[in-house]
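Consider the following assembly input.
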Amino acid sequence: MTNTNTDFKAISKFKPGTTTYKCGDCGKMTRDTGMGEGSLDLCVRCYDEATNENEHNDYGHDDLMVGCPRCYPTD
Ligand SMILES: [Zn+2]
Ligand SMILES: [Zn+2]
């Protein structure tokens, strides 16, 4: 018995399709959570902000929305 099984287990944690990637907006390493952000190369946070910003531009919100970069610009 060697450590081969243990090594294999460690490697199999990184399944294809769940690898990390760099967010195209904030530049942080992130992981696709299945929310749809992976196809845009965004982290879930930036994806969320982008979604809120889109809503802001397209329809506006009923009120100021926390997490919308247009309502609450951050820098
Ligand atoms: Zn990001
Ligand atoms: Zn807004």
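The mean pLDDT is 84. Ask yourself how this observation constrains the way the partners meet.
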